[in-house]
Records
---
Amino acid sequence: MTELRGKKVPLLKKWTGQIPYLVRTAKLIWVSTREWSIFWAAILIVLAVLPVATVVWMKALVDSLVNGLRAGTSWTTMQPAVVYGSLILTTSLITELAHSTLEWIRAMQAELIQDYISARVHQKSVEVDLAFYESPDYYDSLYRARDDANTRPALLLEHLGAVIQNTITVVLLTLLIVRYSPWMMLAMAFSVVPAFFVVAHYNWLQHRWWRDTTVERRWIQYYDQKFTTAAAAPEIRLFHLGPFFQAAFEALRTNLRSQRLQLIRKQSLSRMIAALAGMGVVGITLGWMGWRTFRGSATLGDLTLFYQAIVGGQSLMRSITASLTQVYGNSLFLGEFFAFLDLKPKIVSPKQPLPGPSVLREGIGFRNVTFCYPGSERTALQNFDLVVPAGKIVAIVGPNGAGKSTLIKLLCRFYDPQTGSITFDGRDIRHFSIDDLRSSLSVLFQVPVSYDAPVSDNIAIGDVTSPSSPEAIEAAARSAGAHEMISCLPNGYSTLLGKSFANGTDLSGGEWQRIAMARAFLREAPVILLDEPTSFMDSWAELEWFDHLRVLSKGRTTLMITHRFTIAMRADWIQVMKDGRIIESGTHEMLIRQDGFYAQSWRDQMEASQRAVPVGV
Ligand code: ATP
């Protein structure tokens, strides 16, 4: 990702390397703006031709004025001058109109392009493997793709438009003055070449600096977020972290600021030298034409035309070079956006998937599964075997880091194991389409997600395949033991949850967990996966909740991870995990009789809870 750091890139490659991105950008602009691009191009052509017409009519105006004054001032002699004057005025009027229309069209294009890019970034963010979210490279790439990606194509469009428009004008002006001396335009072209390369070179350096400092800029964003998000606000106050984060933020900003200013200082100096060279060339060519007029080999109209063409042409060429380097600079940044779009997920559906499971008859199986998280040296599961019989509730218990949550992530196919297979009724889950597989799961993750939305929507998003009826939403809430709590909210199921928007109501951790559980239960999937479903519940609520689960899980296969033995003991079967392996299994009574790890942990937990009961209760 940082191959540019400190590497010398040949000049030609700096330019040719961007061509594919320019082509992709052109396609992106076309796909997102369609007919607006046609209007845009048409107006650019009009705006390119009008200045040339003005130059031609200005020469004719000066010549007809000189001739009219020589022949005596009468309507007949001055008529041509009036006509040319009117034409010049009309041209100015049309130019103004065209500029306003172009501005409006560009604003329209910018909006459309922005929305198109956001949609692509969002789509790709959902498409990439979950593993991408655990790699710093992914965040670097996402950060670079997002940084200004929304505005870059619109800027590119603006500068590309300027290049096209000004090039047409310059070519037409060249045709006008080339008859005075073919070398003139060549001299003019050479006058802007140094400026062009200076700007392009610094654009490239700036892009390299921007790319190489991605990590620093992400840290800056991180510190900034710590100050402005609710999650960190309590600890920042409690631990006096404000000055600590501020100092870290300041140190990074100071470093970046001085690097950038150094770059800009060098750039300004080089630009000034290049501009002086250009001005010298203009001075020489104008002097040459003035001398010719003085000698009588050119008219006053010729001098006017030449002056306008040379001065206008040079300023246009300067603007072309500036725009070209902007096109180049913006395409460098867009390269990052395209690189992000090119990320390919590894976890994909098979070409010919099996029909998704609607009900399990045998159950879930893990056979000889070995799995190590991407980028991690530690093996989370080692030659792991497990059977969850169809229609049963199986509890998985075990110490922190035993590999319990990993089972759920593998069943969702967020990752694939390195060896072994995971099966539904004997069929490898990799043979189902990813959508079918995930639709067959009702999952409650360890950390429930809270959405800033009304309660009913918070639950309904558990199944977006069809609109959920209020009855279905209420039934799911009842199964999760959330109905009573929701009924006490100010607007019941219509209450807006979350504190980010006006009139929102926040919930406790346990209440959010119940909402998340209702969301999982709304989906009538054949497999239920619950990761610490009662971690926020008190022991009374827990027992009632389990009774609901018994009813709900009828005919379904349930895998429940829990640290609470009081809930695990109610399951049909208990699997005890440690260090990525099953070390004991059986019913609660069987495991207590075995007097192994489970029995010891059970006794420890019971004793701890006895100690926790206050005197007099
Ligand atoms: P807990 O009871 O604390 O939730 P667990 O039994 O669910 O623990 P897992 O989350 O499955 O444990 O983690 C198993 C092992 O994999 C642990 O050693 C953990 O550090 C590691 N691990 C978990 N997630 C990742 C990850 N995304 N990348 C790298 N290693 C991970």
Note: Confidence is low (pLDDT under 50) at residues 1-6.
---
Amino acid sequence: MANMRKIGVLTSGGDAPGMNAAIRAVVRAGLSKGMEVMGIVRGYNGLIHGDMIKMDESSVTGILQKGGTVLGTARCLEFKEDAGIERAKDMCLKTGLDGIVVIGGDGSYRGARDLSLKGIPCVGLPGTIDNDISSTEYTIGYDTAMNTVVQMVDRLRDTSTSHDRCAVVEVMGRGAGWIALNAGIATGAIAILVPEVAVDVDRDIVAPIKASLAKGKNTFVVMVAEGIGHTAELAKEIEAKTGVESRATILGHVQRGGSPTLRDRVVATQMGYYAVELLEKGIGNRVVGLKGEKVVDYDILEGLNMKKPIDAEMLEIAKAVAL
Ligand code: ADP
Ligand code: F6P
């Protein structure tokens, strides 16, 4: 669309490695298409208050490999109310913003939809380490976070092996078990606990550890998604029931930082470019996702209503090969 002259880009919700790669792609793609590009600071807050920076090619030089988000991010409560969305719309009209790329999770998508319905075309890109966005098979930041978990658990494995201990590791993911599932497989966890599947401590953790002890193994990793909770208590219960000294480790926000992996950089670049192409055509109220390694887009509401069940077969494979 010829009149998409000025676009904005913002990051919203929790940060994720690869957000900078997405910002870079949006800025460079927009500029190459002759658009003016504004970097909106601290998510929807910056939009409401007109806190934005005019970007040029060099504003995004050197950020591809950086974790976090150079634009800053925030959770903006005001934007959840109609008055806040009206203020953001007025700011878009005042500053001449014709469209916005929103990089964030489901909450950010809801905001993008609200603003699109008020006449400002918005396109959502999936940015979260949790991989919990149903409209995409993959979210920007997920691969980096999982690789961080693997590095950390490898370290825990060293000390657990020295002490004949069980490392009970809690990883992020909010209500989803994607990080736990894959990082659990990659670290040879004896048990992987995800909130999507009911857990029986005796059946799913104690029995496999005892069977493994009987085969002569004496060091273990139990991978727990944060949606399960009670990780410290769980470690005590495992120790009491198996006799294996156990230590709980909550990995926490280290999982959100660090230089993005190749996969996160590439997917963020593909998606950022795609989002600008949509806006260029005047298309808003869309979310971008990955389906079978291809970049696709959906209506935001349709995307929010999609389902992405966890891969239960992977859990079975993990159990089958763990000792
Ligand atoms: P994420 O985008 O990672 O899911 P949040 O749920 O915290 O993170 O949402 C990020 C921001 O998106 C919120 O702080 C708010 O500004 C906006 N947002 C969230 N939910 C809504 C909603 N229902 N309507 C409008 N805006 C919303
Ligand atoms: O959504 C990303 C995430 O890191 C979740 O895994 C976690 O539950 C949450 O954000 C933590 O949020 P905060 O940074 O506000 O503590």
Note: The mean pLDDT is 97.
---
Amino acid sequence: MNWKEDYKRKVSKPEEAIRDIRDSQCVVMGHAAAAPRLIPQTLADHCEDYNDVLIFHMTTLGDNPCYQPRCYGHFRHVSNFLSANSREVVERREGDFFPAYFKDVPSMIGNDIPCDVAVFQTTPPNDEGYCSLGVSCDYAKAAIRAAKTVIVETNDKMPFTYGDDMIHVSQIDHIIPCSYPLQELILPAPGEVELAIGRHCASLVADGSTLQLGIGAIPDAVLQALADKNDLGIHSEMFSNGVMELMRKGVINGRRKTLHPGKAVVTFIMGTNELYDFVNENPNVEFYPVDYVNSPLVIAKNERMISINSCLEVDLQGQVASETIGMRQYSGIGGQVDFIRGASLAREGKAIIAMPSTAAGGTISRIKPFLTEGAAVSTSRNDVDYIVTEYGIARLKGRTLQHRAEDLIRIAHPDFRPALAEEYERRFHCTYTE
Ligand code: COA
């Protein structure tokens, strides 16, 4: 059948599409800036018609109407990466978290993560009937392959992007043509602390490096400090506006990349509409599924690969907690460990964890004798390489436990150094000297 006839036959209203969702089924939804909007709203409006439908998703920007307490019992949520609103759902015990690397999600879908229905947002079809997954490639293709029913919101505001991120009209059961703005991520301007961290990180970045930038306040501060570098490249799970700015200045051009030269490789982006316009039909940015982008073996093919991620706390052995505050699940592992391992395997690679030395308005040191009780170790002491705070750089790889403790105390906030030094002296039976 001609794809245009197929398309016409499949055009549905959200109310029609959700009739294919049954009690106790599992719905896998797109995430971040490409999270579908109409189906969640319609499901929430008709929540009384459903019982115990499991919804899997990752990061959500903005509101997901299915998170409202009145939907509980009708819908349950499960995720391996929490953001502000899904964290609340888990804290109310109306959903749960499961630990898993982001790169493993595509292979888990249809196996460990059941997938009866896939709900995603794409562009409208091009002349050949292909829709682009736009700003979020991630696990969409895996879910669309696994699902019995595929529902797609074809949004004319979604940028058409390149890479391995197309699906065909023939793979979709319900097509919902729509037009709504993408959710934006507006980051606050970096403060003095973040800028100092950015400068320390930049001192570790040689010209011709390929960068991965994690999530949170630090990455864009690092990018600001890289404006004088040359020939940088990107191979990153995600990026935001800072990468666009350095691409426009020619600082990021991918010229010396040893994998996908000339292309910024990513699985999803979150930023402002300016960033979404920038990636629209931009041949210099390519989106691939997360099991490819986040594979340590793929990452390692980038010579001079530098991963820059953030964390919540580090203990004096160099164990890094990035996703929990004690027993509280704050976010998820994402690709942190995969990029640390990939960068360590890469020729001339470096893996950086960068964080402010304190949290909670300066009242808590993020460098601690022990991780907070209940905290999960995200990056183990065997994987950790560089730790950076506004006070400097500690290189932990190859360092003994005693030297690690000394180096970490030196980059802790001065107010907390005496207490850390006391623990050092108790642990190593010798005096700590600055
Ligand atoms: N104890 C208590 N509170 C803490 C804390 C600690 N050790 N560390 C941070 N906090 C608080 C902060 O004060 C802040 O509170 P506020 O929102 O009230 O100001 C909040 O927790 C968030 O901390 P912050 O450091 O500002 O978070 P961020 O937005 O910069 O994100 C991570 C940092 C670590 C949560 C984020 O990078 C992450 O999820 N990393 C893991 C996944 C990953 O690295 N993915 C990328 C791989 S591609």
Note: The chain has 15 helices and 25 strands.
---
Amino acid sequence: MKLYSDFSRTELEAERDLLSRQLEEWKAKGLKLNMARGKPCPEQLALSQTMMDVLSSKVDLSCEDGTDCRNYGVLGGIEECKRLLAAIIEVDPDKIIIFGNSSLNVMYECISRSMTHGVMGSTPWMKLDRVKWLCPVPGYDRHFAITEYFGIEMINIPMHADGPDMDMIERLVAEDEAIKGIWCVPKYSNPDGITYSDSVVHRFAKLQPKAKDFRIYWDNAYSVHHLRADKQDFLLEILNECERAGNPDLVYKFTSTSKISFPGSGIAALACSRANQADIMRQMSIQTIGYDKVNQLRHVRFFRDLYGVRAQMYRHADILRPKFELVQRVLHEQLDGTGAAVWTDPHGGYFISMTTTPGCAAAVIARCADCGVTLTQAGAAYPYHRDPDDSNIRIAPSFPSLEELDQATRILALSVRLETVLRLLGV
Ligand code: PLP
């Protein structure tokens, strides 16, 4: 295939007519396909179905220290569950607090608490004139929704192949006391699938923010979510690096079992320094008498340990890998050589991120919707939904069946091609 930019006007017009016809044919099929959200598919959920059998009315619901999990108590989570979640994100169990069913909820809580009560004795953020936040882009839309909800001013930070632009981050946090945090998805990032390099992690650990209440929100949502056994990314452990750099309180590290067991019915955890834990537990002890220990026990009895989790993640990968491979195959077949788009080929996580020629993404997403394919909203991966180049499209291959995915990816690729041709024709 020749680059579209090398096509003559007559060739472009012929291509436009051909692609329009093909898309009309797809539209006539009346499909209803969804590649919008990174949800596990029913076959993945079935992998954890027998977790429902490990507890029953006949089973002793005491945890290993004898605590009756049916009753109140044990605010920070049962020890065996701390060990399990700690192993998943490679920290000591004594650095972990176990929460409820959603890590996003824990992130929201951290910001909410900082707003009303400050961080370890600092001025509550709501009493400050301005609070700012660094947002590596493209990033996770729900992160940006939280900071936007609290009226926090968001600053875009470009992502590179090895993580966010550290020169910019170091400069901004050193000079501006209003900057209180940064969103990071350091492994198999949402949506780029990037894992931060050792050098990026070291530079994060050594940050010298002007604001003493600055925290790195290290959302390790995809720590064990590899797609392959032979190609896996490695991420340095940030809490360790912060300690070694003399910055032990700099980071809140989040995780959950959402895409290991059941999204929305899993277990979330936060790992941080002892001082941060004490600060957080003060609020937590007012907020709740304790989270769901029965679910904690259920997860521990089902997975047992990190080996159990890893075995389960290989089963997830066996379902997900063919889907990611199919999307890659169709995109290469349809787009190679056209210059219409580039896209990522991650080793893990839940997304493929596509970059179209500038000014095309919103139109492509609208055209796909017209043909029955729902994609994540245009601009969603940017603060305030503003993609400055209008070029990012997030593809979530996990939920549709292989057949649906094949159809949806073809419609996406044809739409990308048509919109690129239309731009070149000056439409
Ligand atoms: N963090 C990231 C980066 C995600 O992609 C997601 C879900 O897609 C979440 C957090 C949500 O996690 P939870 O279900 O624990 O709230």
Note: DSSP finds 13 helices and 13 strands in the chain.
